[in-house]
């Protein structure tokens, strides 16, 4: 299960604090040392950990907490609030266009779950916002990516625009957008190419598509199981492409938590959804407060 280790360790760190009424500065220091280790072990970015622990410590060693009769509980509450804040605090909604269609680009490394998530997102927004989506197959490099998107489209009964793999992705994106307008579709989701590693050719192509279609959102899809790598990938994509949001997949696996807790702080961009399974309805809006609750157990 996701966050299992982190939750266990945080509960250990707080078990004696929770029982105490009045807490001393030393109690807080001890608990913070354990929180720090728990976060590092969960693969949270070390700078994020340092800032987080400093911020909690500063608030927890304040007079009010130390003089309070339920200081232990208050320290735990501070950790909860700061965890939620670390992940963005408020839930971040998707951006839609006043003038349809709304255009989204799906980006990410191969295997992160980009193509599957394109279908999930189309399905989710059709259900929750009554939108009429069209998927565009602009990943012409990975063998079978186009077929995969078409299969997903058939399963969901959502049209998929494709021009095969001999036309440039920029051209496919532009033509797909025209087709969506002609068919009165109000949501266009473009599945772009991924690669095993970030490279210049990939980034150049993504920038060209971005310029050509001017999307409302560029979603970066990252695999939560890859921890710090996911955070580094997000940082690079954001530097080069100025992504708008992150979708964290495979949260149904036993991810340690590093990506979920670091990405917002490192990139400044919100996580808007999480993938929680292989099925096409396994996509959930991301709520930082609920996630903080889940992590604290
Ligand atoms: P892409 O190369 O980024 O387009 O990745 P795919 O969409 O082909 O996904 C790669 C694999 O990850 C597929 O087997 C998906 O079913 C799987 N996958 C995607 N999202 C999730 C998720 O949230 N949870 C789980 N368990 N598997 C996922």
Can you tell me about this structure?
The protein is an alpha/beta fold and 297 residues long. The protein is 53% helix and 13% strand. It has twelve helices and eight strands. The protein has helices spanning 4-19, 25-41, 46-60, 63-67, 71-86, 114-129, 145-156, 169-182, 200-213, 228-241, 258-267, 288-296; strands at residues 102-107, 133-137, 160-161, 187-191, 217-223, 245-249, 271-275, 283-285. An eight-stranded mixed sheet has the order 3-2-4-1-5-6-7-8, sandwiched between helices. Helix 7 links the parallel strand 2 (133-137) and strand 3 (160-161). The radius of gyration is 21 Å and the shape is elongated. The relative contact order is 0.17. The model has no long low-confidence stretch (mean pLDDT 95). Residues 108, 110-116, 194, 249-250, 252-253, 275-278, 282 line the site of guanosine-5'-diphosphate.
Kindly list the characteristics that best describe this protein.
297 residues, alpha/beta, eight-stranded mixed β-sheet, 12 helices, 53% helix, elongated, binds guanosine-5'-diphosphate, RNA-binding
Decide which structural class fits the backbone.
alpha/beta
Low-confidence stretches: none
Distance between the amino and carboxyl termini: 12 Å
Quaternary structure classification: single chain
Percent in strands: 5-15%
Number of DSSP E strands: 8
Q: Average pLDDT value?
A: 95
List each distinct ligand once: guanosine-5'-diphosphate
Task: Give the strand line-up of the largest sheet.
Answer: 3-2-4-1-5-6-7-8
Q: What's the tally of helices?
A: 12
The helix content is: 40-55%
Tell me the overall shape.
elongated
């Amino acid at each position: 299960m996701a966050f299992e280790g982190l939750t266990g360790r945080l509960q250990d760190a707080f078990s004696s604090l929770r029982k105490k009424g009045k807490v001393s500065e030393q109690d807080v220091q001890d608990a913070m040392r354990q929180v720090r280790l728990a976060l590092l072990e969960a693969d949270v970015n070390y700078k994020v950990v340092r800032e987080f622990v400093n911020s909690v410590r500063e608030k927890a060693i304040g007079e009010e907490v130390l003089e309070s009769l339920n200081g232990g509980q208050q320290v735990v509450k501070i950790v909860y609030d700061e965890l939620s804040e670390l992940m963005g605090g408020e839930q971040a909604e998707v951006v839609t266009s006043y003038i349809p269609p709304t255009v989204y680009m799906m980006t990410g490394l191969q295997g992160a779950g980009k193509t599957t998530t394109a279908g999930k997102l189309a399905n989710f927004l059709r259900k929750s916002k009554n939108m009429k989506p069209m998927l565009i197959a602009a990943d012409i490099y990975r063998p079978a990516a186009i077929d995969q998107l078409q299969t997903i489209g058939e399963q969901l009964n959502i049209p998929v625009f494709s021009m095969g793999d001999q036309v440039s992705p920029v051209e496919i994106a532009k033509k797909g957008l025209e087709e969506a307008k002609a068919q009165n579709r109000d949501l266009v989701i473009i599945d772009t190419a991924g690669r095993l590693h970030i490279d210049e050719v990939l980034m150049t192509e993504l920038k060209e598509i971005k310029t050509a279609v001017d999307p409302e959102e560029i979603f970066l899809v990252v695999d939560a199981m890859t921890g710090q790598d996911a955070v580094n990938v997000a940082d690079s994509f954001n530097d080069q492409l100025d992504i708008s949001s992150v979708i964290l997949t495979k949260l149904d696996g036993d991810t340690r938590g590093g990506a979920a807790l670091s990405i917002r702080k490192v990139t400044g961009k919100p996580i808007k959804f999480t993938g929680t399974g292989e099925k096409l309805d396994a996509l959930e809006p991301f709520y930082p407060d609920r996630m903080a609750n889940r992590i604290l157990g």
